[in-house]
Design brief:
single chain; alpha/beta; 5-stranded parallel sheet; 36 helices; 16% strand
Length: 1144
């Protein structure tokens, strides 16, 4: 308060405000009790429920008129920003706390300051009214009720701490037809968990924090969730740069100072650009017309991932309801079973009987606390604000000021000054924010805290601090503006404030470091010289790229060309050992020269011995494209599928058959639709980019219908034995014994394609976990895991950090009491979403990036990629960083893991040393009580039906190009999909099938056995050198190099040089865009007329899948990039032609 403020209090006499009524025992009520005690006042807190906590206490059936939350609620402000200013949250508490942890903190606070004895539970405040002599005494009559009995008492002051989340705002009148809707509807206040919505079509109305949280959570159980928004929203993440809490990064005095120097438009543009780098809000149908600082932002880390996977579809406002559907303002109609209105809250104070009027959440209060028209300032409202930051520290500072006003130590200004301040704030709010009931009590965190601090003289003096304590001053000025700063000086000064500020970073890091990480080998330094050389190198690479690609093209080859002629050396791939062809002067000249070459001795399989009948084992993704390729080549396929349906791995079954692949209910693929589709059958544009297993099955069924594949499949048929016929050396034929309905049948086939995959036999290394035999809880392999419901309220450890392990840990953390993620060596975690919200593989799997990767030293490539991943979240800080580099292990893909770790729902632990009856003891000596163990320890594979034709030892198998046994007299056996690619497997299986069927048909040959064995040995040696030793790393391939290697065999690798001269627009997309499967249909056998169109429209299909709600069109791009492309293309043409002309 300014020194000139007029005294409107009752003076500073000690009798002033002795007895204070506090209404509500939530977070604001607790700090109100403490502030009263510190000022020598006598508090009595009335709490209508039976416990403290207010909003943050979860109850299955909340009482009317009381705040209510759902079971999984986690606070959106980090612990250092939300704690009470003289009571830091314990360092081992997670940064973003679950409601149960918040309650634990409140109880610690209440015990520490002995607050509970001042609370009267189960007591409702019925009426608060001024006493007849209020004008002179400022006293209040407070009528309460407990156990049906009313009681009246006189208080010298009243603190209203009821918050603003008690009365659900449910504007049903604005939704025509809701009265005839036959489904269920409810307000978010009544929502508790997602199980009531299992397999239902649900629309969530409202895109605030509750709405987006509920949409994400319900999408894990519902068949489909629609998120309806009238205006859209800007979405912030809890996890900021390098994995630090977002409020720790942005809520600093320096950033506030810089923000005040800039115009609102500049601030908005800067922040919006940062948010759109994470994901383009326009593409995702979320971009609002207003700027980011014009609305209370929404915080959610997982919403973009749920949208891109199609589990949540963003829709415009609802125009009307019918009996079974919702019709949206864009005219679309969706059948729905339930509606959740996340439409916010209203607030009122009926017990005050008109002392304070509230109209549409508008209330006139000085500093959002004091009614300006009171004769005596003995009534104050605490926590009646909506801050862009944490509310607990604001409530505490309000209490400290209010109690000093009650005691007469601080004064309020005259009524006209207070009303002028109120008016000014309302006008500023109306000018800045979108008109809404939500935007009536908005405050910015640091300005609000400093404004309150000035009233009582506790705002930190930076000048004094810089002169007396520079170390502390730097942290106060440039570090997060934590509540401790308001305990450095003045009334309520706390001796521990300095230490708390200087150690806040340590408390942020402590809960994340649950697994010790060894220091990672030092990465290459990025000196200025390196950067300059790198820039020059990139330019040189760009100009040399097309020539390099052209000169290493496979030649156009007619059927019957020898292996030597067909094989080309690929700069990007380590697996190829064949010699490089001579310099190319164009494809025609190459063909003429190659036709004159002598044939290399090889496995001849000429047309007169062409295979006719082909047995295909398995009708999953690989089996389906095997059928299609056989039909394309004029072969006669018969597919044997042991289950009753197609789909293989992607067919979800509650109780899968032994020996069949198995997935859990929520599985969503990690490869985006454009990268995983079959090369001549694009996935529909309205399908999500990352598809749920049910959508993958829908695509497979479309594919099977389109090419009439089902009639070639024999379901419920098990292959018992595949053996060489006696005359195999001359015919290459196989005896295939099958069983169906208990009857065996034997048939002769000319060739066999094994499409059983490598996810059928669970690898469960129980012998490596001592004590497991005496563990009293349950344990299972991820093969048996289906959904998290059976783990509700339990403590679960998930072993291994592969994709299944991390996905299951994340999913379990929504239901379990605590999840521990045990890892032996750590892992690098990639996101599905790349820059701008595009699919990661769509963004990074390109020919140009592959070329850069192959030209850069391995250590530099690893350093750059690891640096990029650590910019998202620091893997060492989160206890995940392994000793090996990112390219030395199959990476893990998960978007939500960092959020679950920082909120404490998943705790990363080292490897398990041993089990006891009820606990797991880890290698760092820590012990955790557990109820269940999930082993996500991968799979083994074998082929017992082949009876020793192909040997598998610890997932090691000798196959040429991971397909052909090199020691067969005839190449009539091939394995499809027996690879673990750094990318999608479906296109690889497709290309393998195209090659294998041409080999079976006699159109192409394999090299001699010694050459194939040498290639197999070389590939194994390189794999052993590159990857961490593991059963997981025996069939690894890099996507583009391996696809190109297969394409060279078939003669379908795109010819960039020819494309560059004939179709510059297409070549730019092929060279610099994503390497989608369509590229392998541009030429050669199996050429598809729709390929060019598919490639040029692939970005459109990616974006279209996201735009369920029509938002503002993205700003029209500048003409500069188009001009650049023209000059760039001309330059490349000239450079390429000059290079070729003058080369010897």
């Amino acid at each position: 308060m300014g020194k000139g403020a007029t005294d409107r209090g009752t003076g500073a006499k000690s009798s002033m405000g002795k007895k204070v009524a506090i209404i509500g025992g939530g977070s604001s009520g607790l700090c109100a009790i403490k502030a009263c005690l510190q000022e020598g006042l006598e508090p009595v807190c009335f709490e209508r429920s039976g416990d403290i906590g207010g909003l943050w206490r979860f109850e299955e059936r909340p009482e009317e008129g009381r705040a209510s939350i759902y079971r999984s609620v986690i606070i959106n402000t980090s612990k250092e920003m939300m704690c009470f200013s003289d009571f830091p949250i314990p360092e081992d508490f997670p940064n973003y706390m679950h409601n149960s942890k918040i309650m634990e903190y409140f109880r610690m606070y209440a015990r520490r300051f002995d607050l509970l004895r001042h609370i009267r539970f189960r007591t409702t405040v019925c009426r608060v009214s001024k006493r007849p002599d209020f004008a002179t005494t400022g006293q209040w009559d407070v009528v309460t009720e407990s156990e049906g009995k009313q009681e009246e008492a006189v208080f010298d002051a009243v603190l209203v701490c009821t918050g603003h989340h008690t009365e659900a705002h449910l504007p049903l009148s604005t939704f025509p037809g809701i009265e005839k809707f036959k489904g269920r509807y409810l307000h978010s206040r009544d929502y508790k968990d997602s199980q009531d919505f299992r397999d239902k079509m649900v629309v969530v109305v409202g895109i605030g924090n509750s709405g987006s949280d509920l949409a994400v959570e319900i999408s894990q159980a519902a068949k489909q969730v629609f998120l309806s928004t009238r205006r859209g929203a800007w979405i912030l993440n809890r996890v900021g740069d390098q994995g630090y809490p977002i409020d720790i990064i942005f809520t600093t005095r320096m950033k506030t100072f810089l923000k005040n120097l800039m115009s609102p438009s500049m601030v908005s543009s800067f922040v919006e650009k940062q948010l759109n780098m994470r994901f383009n809000h326009s593409h995702y149908g979320l971009k609002p017309k207003h700027r980011i600082i014009d609305q209370h932002p929404t915080i959610n880390d997982d919403l973009p991932n749920r949208i891109i996977s199609g589990r949540v579809r963003v829709k415009p406002n609802i125009q009307e309801f019918t009996e079974t559907a919702a019709i949206f303002e864009d005219g679309t109609r969706e059948d729905i079973d339930a509606v959740v209105f996340a439409t916010g809250y209203s607030f009122s104070f009926p017990f005050l009987e008109g002392c304070v009027k509230v109209v549409e959440n508008q209330v006139s209060l000085y500093k959002f606390m004091f009614p300006p028209d009171m004769e005596k300032p003995t009534l104050a409202f605490i926590g009646l604000v909506q801050p862009l930051g944490a509310i607990m520290p604001i409530s505490e500072l309000q209490c400290r000021w209010a109690t000093r006003v009650f005691k007469g130590l601080n004064k309020l200004p005259p009524r006209q000054d207070m009303e002028a301040d109120i008016k000014q704030k309302k006008e500023a709010m109306a000018k800045r924010y979108v008109k809404s009931q939500r935007h009536t009590i908005q405050v910015d965190y640091i300005p609000c805290m400093d404004e309150l601090a000035c009233q009582m003289g506790v705002k930190p003096n930076l000048l004094t601090l810089f002169l007396t304590d520079p170390k502390l001053a730097l942290e106060v000025a440039f570090g997060p503006c934590t509540p401790y700063q308001y305990r450095l000086r003045g009334p309520g000064e706390w001796a521990g404030a300095r230490e708390a500020i200087l150690t806040q970073q340590q408390r942020i890091m402590k809960p994340l470091q649950t697994r010790h990480v060894e220091e990672h080998p030092s990465a290459p330094t990025t000196s200025l010289v390196f950067k300059l050389v790198g820039a020059v190198a990139v330019l040189a690479i760009i100009f040399a790229y097309f020539y390099a690609a052209a000169s290493h093209q496979c030649p156009e080859h007619p059927s019957g060309l020898s292996f030597h002629a067909m094989t080309c050396r690929n700069l990007e791939h380590d697996h190829i050992s064949a010699p490089a062809p001579r310099k190319s002067w164009g494809s025609v000249g190459i063909i003429k020269r190659l036709r004159g070459l002598p044939q290399h001795p090889c496995h001849r399989h000429t047309a007169d011995m062409a295979a006719q009948r082909v047995a295909i084992i398995g009708a999953g993704a690989s089996g389906l494209c095997a059928l299609k390729c056989c039909l394309d080549e004029g072969l006669v396929p018969t597919c044997f599928e042991r289950s009753g349906d197609i789909g293989g791995l992607w067919l979800f079954e509650e109780r899968p058959e032994e020996g069949h692949a198995s997935i859990y209910r929520s599985v969503t693929i990690n490869a985006s639709k454009e990268m995983m589709c079959f090369s001549d059958f694009p996935i529909p544009e309205d399908f999500p980019n990352y598809m749920h297993n049910s959508k993958i099955m829908e695509y497979f069924r479309m594919y099977a219908r389109r090419f009439d594949l089902l009639r070639h499949i024999r379901f419920r048929t098990t292959v018992c034995r595949v053996s060489k016929r006696p005359d195999f050396a001359t015919t290459g034929q196989w005896d295939v014994v099958t069983e169906s309905e208990g009857k065996q049948e034997e048939a002769v086939f000319d060739a066999v394609l094994v499409c059983t995959g490598h996810h059928t036999e669970a690898h469960l290394p129980l012998s490596t976990f001592p004590g497991l035999e005496k563990f009293e809880g349950c344990y299972l392999h991820s093969w048996d895991y289906k959904s998290p419901q059976s783990f509700s309220g339990k403590r679960v450890v998930v072993i291994c950090t592969g994709n299944s392990g991390i996905n299951i840990a994340v999913e379990l953390s929504h239901a379990a009491k605590q999840v521990f993620l045990s890892t032996k060596c750590g892992t690098w975690v990639m996101h599905r979403l790349a820059e701008g919200g595009f699919p990661f593989d769509f963004f990074y799997i390109s020919r140009f990036i592959q070329l850069l990767h192959s030209l850069l030293p391995h250590s530099v490539s690893s350093f750059l990629m690891e640096r990029k991943l650590n910019a998202r979240f620091d893997h060492a800080l989160y206890g995940l960083q392994p000793q090996h580099g990112i390219f030395n292990q199959y990476p893990t893909v998960n978007d939500d893991l960092p959020n679950r770790i920082i909120s404490g729902r998943v705790r990363v632990k080292p490897n398990i040393q041993e089990f006891t009856e009820t606990a797991a003891i880890f290698e760092d000596g820590t012990r955790e009580d557990i109820d269940a163990v999930v082993f996500a320890t991968g799979y083994s594979f074998s082929f017992p039906f082949l009876e020793g034709c192909v040997k598998v030892v610890e997932n090691q198998v000798s196959l040429y190009k991971f397909m052909f046994p090199p020691d067969m007299e005839k190449p009539t056996l091939a394995f499809i999909g027996l690879v673990q690619p750094l990318g999608a497997i479906m296109p690889i299986s497709k290309l393998q099938c195209r090659w294998a069927t041409r080999v079976f048909k006699g159109l192409q040959d394999l090299p001699p056995s010694p050459a194939m064995l040498a290639d197999v040995t070389q590939v194994k040696e390189k794999m052993a050198k590159r990857y961490v030793k593991s059963q997981r790393h025996t069939i690894q391939v890099d996507y583009i190099p391996y696809m190109d290697e297969l394409a060279c065999q078939v003669g379908v690798k795109p010819n960039l040089f020819t494309l560059f001269l004939t179709d510059p627009k297409l070549v730019l997309e092929v060279a610099f865009g994503p390497c989608t499967p369509y590229q392998y249909r541009l030429r050669g056998p199996g050429e598809w007329a729709g390929t060019r169109e598919a490639i040029l429209t692939q970005q459109q299909r990616v974006v279209q899948a996201l735009r369920a709600r029509a938002g503002d069109c993205p700003p029209r791009s500048s003409t500069v990039p188009h001009i650049f492309k023209v000059f760039f293309s001309v330059g490349l043409i000239v450079a390429t032609l000059v290079y070729i002309s003058f080369s010897p």
